[in-house]
From TrEMBL:
The chain crosses the membrane at residues 57-78. It is found in: Nucleus. This is Protein ANTAGONIST OF LIKE HETEROCHROMATIN PROTEIN 1. Pfam families: DDE_Tnp_4 (PF13359). It comes from Frankliniella fusca. Its cofactor is a divalent metal cation. One of its GO terms (molecular function) is metal ion binding. Belongs to the HARBI1 family.
Amino acid sequence: RGSRGPYCNPILNRRVSNLMNLLPAQIKKDLRVSVEALMLLMDRIIAQINPPKLRGYSLQFAVIITLYWLAAGMLYRICGNTFDVARSTVCDLVLLILNAIIRLARDVIRCPDAEEVVIVGENFGRMSGSPVFLQCAGVIDVCQLEILCEVERHDEYINQKLFYSIAMEAVVDHNAKFININVGFPGSCHDIRILRHSGMYLNSTYPPEGYFIIGDGGYISLRRPIVLVTPYRDMNLNEDQRSFKYHLSRIRATVERAFGLMQARWRALFHRAIEVKLRKAVKVITACAILHNICIDAGDMDHAPVPVRRPPRPPVEEVSGDAFRNLLCMLHNMARRQADAEQNLQ
């Protein structure tokens, strides 16, 4: 007689078993996060999940399938085949976990308090090599993330590079950690327009008194309602202005690094058009920004309802920051010359 077959067949394949057993190499390869970051995420969202909504699956399984969905470029079919579940189940679990992650935004993406902003300034001052940047509280920039063409008002989403996108405005600290984000503006919107519609600008919530944030040439220097310093434009700059611009650019690279880290971690997602509807694309981008911060906290650094009509806000008074930028430039060069003089005396 022929040999007997196995008494039973395993429900999960080897890859899924390794993921459920938290095998570090498999977790990092397939989920793009470390085991420590995965455990930290589950600890933070466990209180927000209603067990009946998990449809009989464990929280660990739901989180793993959501991260796999992000790492695989949001392909429900691939996730369903890998985990041997229906695509509708993948869709329900992903939406549940995405909403739970987004509810963490207020705690995970937040501005530094009075003690933390001092540390942020000290690190930016060290990075720049100039004492005037000890009062730098963050770096701001906008990243364009490609999406599929929207049927309605599609022309508004064509950016200057001629592809459809939505904008993500972010302020980061010295660790390339997001401390403020604004996601969802059409790709055609200018950087300064996005800033002027942000709560940080309208309510003057950040930076605190005595501090400033740094932006690129897409912004303008401001003294009020927030203090924003931008580099000099390349037009007949003198030696002092070139020196100031060089030291400022050493800090400004931090926000580009933050965007690069987030997009590299979810490269299958961001290196092509995000293939979901606009509202869900905003959720996905916001969730990825939150996961970026959670990974940094865990030491993992590799890699439509009808809108409510609100009354218009009164215009906010703007005061040019050019004079303040000139003052910083002067103080920077005074400190530089003093240091050179002391070095020559030695």
